[in-house]
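It would be a great kindness if you could assist me with a short task in structural biology. Thank you for your consideration; the sequence and its tokens are set out here.
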Amino acid sequence: MFSYILAHLLKGTKSKMETDIHRIDNNTLNDVLNRSNEVDPKLYDRYIMNKAIDEPSYTILIVMYCLLIVMGALGNTLVIIAVFRKPAMRTPRNMFIVNLAVADLLLCTITMPLTLMEILTKYFPLGNNLFVCKTIGILQATSTYVSTISITAIALDRYQVIVYPTKESLQIFGAALILLLIWIVALVLAMPLFIVRHLTHHDLPGMGNNGVLSLDFCIENWPVEHGRAYYSIFSLIFQYTLPIIIVSAAYYRISYKLRYRFQAGFVSTEDNLQKSRRQLRGRRLQKTNLLLGSIAIIFCISWLPLNLFNLIADLSPDPNKFSSQPMKVCYAICHMMGMSSACSNPILYGCLNENFWKEFKDILCIEKGTDEVGGTSQKTSIRKKCQKSLLKPDMVTDATNYQQCNTVSSDLTVLTKC
């Protein structure tokens, strides 16, 4: 009798359990089906092809990045060659420009391709390699920091030369020490990205027929909550805010000092020659002020969108919404604007510099056309005029009356030739 009752109870319990399991399975299946309707049907294909961006945005981004990479690499390579091909160009001041060109060359050849790779792919395409994952982050950040710190160092060097001309000029050893310090500071500022970067590996059994055996994701795993947001604020301060304040203040002070010396360097009694020289120096002063203002404005405009995007994305309560395709494209545009500084720097610091521009023309074999007049070419005539002007004093006037004007001329030479 007891065994009959126990069997009946077990049978009833089993029947109830099967009913509950069947109900749970139905609910789970319905939940899965409902959620599957919300999944992008192209998601599986994107993982198979490892493409996070659809056409035509995919191709457009590749073309635009390639144009920036080629232009920036060519321009910065010309700057480096122009300095090292002639000993006369290897001045302490030019070493700062070379350092900036090296950093921008790294931006073009390393940072831009790797960032484009991260934007276009769904998972890490370089395999299960933790060192590569960590190295990518620190290389990208280091080249960016070196570029911005070098721009700041160039502004401070010009400020010291123009505003305090009586102080001892910087020598090669001092310039090399400052450049070493710039790289050390940049590495220290970028080191958190090396520490927090980790690689997650996922094996996918049974996926071999479709070409996907495993997935690797290079992610940032911050040890504290909102760590990424804190680092974004830190980067905004040291990579953007402080440099733009220092550069703007230095160039404003230089412009003010040049304008003061220009206005105080002339007396009221002027003949035609003096007036023409005053007008010439006035035009050079305007060109210099335009150059200094352009450097600060372009630096500000180039890096502002990227820093704002990173800050908003890291402070957002829902960071997943910034992983959609439109947001990825928006991030790519902001990143290209920041990287465009690597293309504009060779122009601002090289092409607008008379000595660099002359070296560029020699490297590229660009010569002015010669018009034969009486057997003498225009190029030879220009060269003779330059030689004559070097033999003449800067102004055919009393040096005591126009000493400050000569100072203005030398200051402008520092900015346009050194």
Observations:
- The first strand starts at residue 197 and ends at 203.
- The CA atoms of residues 221 and 227 lie 9 Å apart.
- Residues 1-25, 369-409 have pLDDT under 50 and may be disordered.
- The chain has one domain: 47-266+279-367+398-417.
